[in-house]
Every structure is written in structure tokens, then in C-alpha cells.
Amino acid sequence: MSEASYAPYLPISAELFRAKRLQSFELIRGEEVRGMLRGLRETSGRVVQLRDYLQVMTLGVISRMALGKKYIQEEAATEGGPPPVLTPAEFREMVDEFFVLHGASNIGDFIPWLDWLDLQGYVRRMKSMNRKFHRFLDHVLDEHSRRRRLEGEGFEARDLVDVLLQLADDPNLEVQLSRDNVKAIIQDALLGASDTAAATIEWAISELIRNPKVLGKAAEELDRVVGRERLVTEGDLPALPYIEAILKETFRLHPVAPTLVPHLAREDARVDGFDIPAGTAVFVSVWSIGRDPALWDAPEEFRPERFIGSKIDVKGQDFELLPFGSGRRMCPGLGHGMKVTLLSIANLLHGFVWRLPDGMKVEDLSMEEIFLLAVPRKNPLEAVVQPRLPSHLYMRA
């Protein structure tokens, strides 16, 4: 792809993920995390599926950042108001279907003359999912376009959708954005920033339940730095190196994008004795790198301590750990992803005591993966939470 082809996407990434704007979203992240804690507290002593709460939280954050408000909620925001466009359950169903279908192997792709039969039903399911996404995204775009018309000359872009619609109307843009382009970018932002973060947090909590000593060290750090009279804020995160080490170790063992996005060899190269011709599609298996015994001591063990004092970071310069990729195709949401996952893990550990359901031992907790477009847990984590902080902290808006 030429530099010109990237032109329309540069202001898009800058608009949503530049440092100053990310900082302005701190309130949104804090509110959504606190909402998740309130919901979990209400389940005290009962078995919960953590994934449900994580997906609602991460979707709430990116919806408010990118779309300007929550379009996906259980019920109308005010009594007598319009019904929600989608409920969280409906959106989760769409997201799960998206990742299943994008990671599936369709027989028709390999044997074209069988394609019309749709033997596995994937084409039918893709069309159905596509219609649902289009219906939702059309509603979002129509609502934003209506506000632009009403405000006229006084219109100011408030979110990613506003920026994209302005770019689509710019006749001087070298690469024009169509309505479908705008919808595709919004869809990528919603999926990329919600489900991947939720999967990472779920893996982290799963590993901590399996490793009580690590969980104890994390709780001790939180009590020492934050205390038990308040929740964790983003301002606390730089003073929580062990929590950051837990996240890095989770990235190493459970990268949600196991082969990253495909790269293209721009020139002939030779790697480990293999010739890579220019134009070759290159898939980088960070899953294998994270388990390479030549790079990591006891690679199958969950040891956050390996990152204490280590200079290895996730910013794309240390090839041993590339959860967000590297180079021009690196994930632009690195800053956002780190803030959401760190803040969530820290508050989940600080706010609750975690244990497995009655009768279930640590050895019984399956860590089996399922390979889709991403690699989440095959079975959602089920756990019991018990509040460890004063009750009023969970009730704050």
C-alpha cells in the first residue's frame, strides 16, 4: 500500500488515539470500569461469567469514545425514551459470530466449484451478520448526519464518526471514503477495541486464580499503593509495576492476535536460511515467540516476575513481545488498550476476592484456547467474587 493510500487513515488514528485525546477519555474509562464493579458486586457469592461484564464495559468505553454515546444498552436511557438499537446480548452474539466466521476455513475458498453449495453454511451466516451490522451502523451514521444538518455552520466534530463523515465529504481527499468505508472503520474500532481487551483481561484473571501466590502479591501491591479506602485510578498505574508485569505476562502467554495482521515483504529477504521474495504475505506468530524456550525461561509457566526490572516493552521495539505488532501496521490503539486493561485488572483485583465455584479445584480450571480470528478462552471463565473494599466505593457514579 502506498503512502497516499494511508492518507485518510492518518487523521482518523490521530483523532481517536492521540495522547491528549486519550487523556480526555479518562473519565469515560473510569466510569465504565466502576459500572462493571457495581455489577459484579451485586453478584457477590454467586457464580458469574466474567466475560459478560468485561464485554459490556469495554464496549461502553469504545462506544462513548468513537460513537459519542452508548447505542448498545439493556433499555432506554430514560423512561419512555426510544428503545435501544441493540442490547448487549445481541451485540455479543454478533461479535462472537464475527470472530467465528473470520477465523473459519470455507471449503468454497479452496474448491471454487463447490462454493455455490455453501456446504458449511458460512456464506449464509456471513450475509446475515452483515445485514445486522449494516442496520446498526446505518442508524449511527444517520443520527450523526442529522445532528450535522441541524447544527449547520456551528457544527463541531465530537467523536470518531463525526470526523469520518467530514473526511468522506472532503472532495480534496486523495483517497475518497465512501459510506461503506466509514462503516467498516467504525466496525473495526468497535470490535478491535472491545473484544480483544475483554479477552486479555479474562485471560489475566484466569491465570491469577490458577496462581494464588501471584494473586497475593498483586493484592499486596494494591493495598500498599492505593489502600482500601478508594478505587484504583489511572494516576495510580505508574506506581503499580507488578500489575503491569501481570499484563505483560498475559500478553506473552495469551496474545489475542496470535499471528498479528499480515505484513507484506517489500523487498527480497533471507530469514533463518529461508528466502522471502518481495511481495510475500508474512504472518508473524507471536504465540510461538511467546513460548520459545530460546527466548524465555520456563515459557509455559505464568511468571510476571520475569518482567520486573526488565526493559522489554510492548511498543513494537522488542520483538520478544509484540502483542500490538510493530512498524506501520502496528495497532494504533496501543495507548488505549494498555489503559483499559491495566485499569480493569487493577480494580478487579483490588475490589474483589476471587475464587472458583464450590467443588472446583484450581487443577480443574481449563485454559483451553479456541482459535478464531482472535484466541479467547474456549470456555468463559466462571468464578465467585467477594467484595474486599467498603460498600460505598462500589456505589459511586
UniProtKB/TrEMBL annotation:
Keywords: Heme, Iron, Metal-binding, Monooxygenase, Oxidoreductase. It holds the Pfam family p450. Its cofactor is heme. InterPro entries: Cyt_P450 (IPR001128), Cyt_P450_CS (IPR017972), Cyt_P450_E_grp-I (IPR002401), Cyt_P450_sf (IPR036396). The keyword Iron applies. Heme binds at residue 331. The keyword Heme applies. Gene3D superfamilies: Cytochrome P450. It comes from the Eukaryota. This is Uncharacterized protein. It comes from Panicum virgatum (Blackwell switchgrass).
